From TrEMBL:
Subcellular location: Cell inner membrane; Periplasm
Keywords: Cell inner membrane, Cell membrane, Membrane, Signal, Transport
Segment forming the signal sequence: 1-21
Protein name as catalogued: Aliphatic sulfonate ABC transporter substrate-binding protein
Family: Belongs to the bacterial solute-binding protein SsuA/TauA family.
Iron as UniProt keyword: no
Kinase keyword on record: no
PROSITE patterns linked: PROKAR_LIPOPROTEIN
Length: 340
């Protein structure tokens, strides 16, 4: 069974707009550059990253890459670690939340989003007995998100500021903010350590099933809830420029994985349950996965305008020091080409 291989990259967790998710590093991590016969793909063990799990389980990258190519996989604990691995050539591509991709791009990283992985899947959960009937009750309450300024954090804080006029203590607001891994939210609700959680699936459905909390705001009503990519497929601009055939092969495999999920949801759910257990040692029930699946749309289509609007919200919330310009971040040419 694969185990967590947390690296020094975790020291970068303080970056704003880091990803929301939990995971582990695994596989061969020595592939510093694309060699033509070895590539490494990264993703998180979250439901929004099922395309990565399916591609691994079904060995789909081997179908699109040249014969003999060795395909490795690496599981990441956060988006900052993932993006650094992209920039250093430790991995050639993979799935990450849109937040870290945008943050690193606006900081000067030469990266491209070449496809989406999924949309939706963010849920705002309230702890039982926290005396919360609506988001208006959150003044003075403690909320948790995976990282400061991560995708789910920005969605939640955008909604709270725009619709209820409430902000976090990060900007001297009324809500206290803490961070933690989504897989721990059920236990934190049970102990009363937090009142509200902005949760990526499947962990919202786990909380529902175990009865420690209930839905306060469902996916469709969270800011950018059904339109914002919850996961995007990222690679480096250098690779896209120097070896566009490689990137096309990677995107073709990702498209195959996404289409498999669309056409075989039940088998895809089983793959997700098994892979999450393998990576995190946590076994999720079929009912929790079923519930989570209803909140997610698996697609490789990407809308750059939505990402720009989301980035503008991040700037409005003071997660970014300068107004972001994402021109050039999204490259749809590879998903527009016919698959092999």
């Amino acid at each position: 069974m694969k185990k967590f291989l947390f690296s020094a990259l975790l020291l970068l967790l303080g970056l704003v707009l880091t990803a929301c998710g939990s995971g582990e590093s695994s596989g061969n991590t020595d592939a510093a550059e694309s060699s033509g016969d070895e590539i490494t793909i990264g993703y998180f063990p979250n439901i929004n990253h099922v395309a990565g799990m399916v591609a691994e389980e079904k060995d789909l990258y081997s179908e699109t890459l040249p014969d003999g190519t060795q395909v490795n996989y690496q599981y990441f604990p956060d988006g900052s670690a993932f993006m650094t691995a992209i920039e250093t050539g430790e991995i050639e591509g993979g799935l990450v939340g849109p937040g870290p991709a945008m943050n690193h791009y606006t900081s000067g990283a030469e990266v491209n989003i070449v496809a989406s992985g999924s949309t939706g899947g963010t849920v705002i959960m309230a702890r039982n007995d926290a005396n919360i009937e609506s988001p208006e009750d959150l003044a003075g309450k403690t909320f948790i998100s995976p990282r400061v300024g991560c995708t789910h954090d920005v969605q939640f804080e955008t909604m709270m500021k725009e619709e209820y006029g409430l902000t976090s203590d990060r900007v001297k607001g009324e809500m206290k903010h803490v961070t933690g891994e989504p897989a721990t939210y059920h236990s934190m609700f049970t102990t009363g350590n937090v009142d509200v959680a902005t949760v990526p699936e499947p962990w919202a459905s786990v909380i529902e099933e175990k009865g420690s909390g209930e839905v306060l705001v469902d996916t469709s009503d969270v800011a950018y809830g059904e339109t914002l990519p919850a996961a995007v497929f990222v690679t480096s601009q250098r690779l896209a420029d120097e070896d566009p055939e490689l990137i096309q092969n990677l995107v073709d495999a990702h498209k195959k994985a996404t289409e498999f999920i669309q056409e075989n949801p039940e088998e895809s759910k089983t793959i997700a349950i098994d892979k999450i257990k393998d990576i995190t040692d946590q076994e999720l029930s079929a009912s929790a996965i079923d519930n989570a699946w209803e909140r997610i749309n698996f697609t490789y289509e990407i809308d750059g305008e939505v990402l720009q609007n989301f980035a503008d919200s991040s700037y409005d919330l003071e997660f970014l020091d300068e107004a972001p310009d994402l021109t050039g971040l999204v490259d749809t040419s590879f998903i527009e080409n016919e698959s092999n």
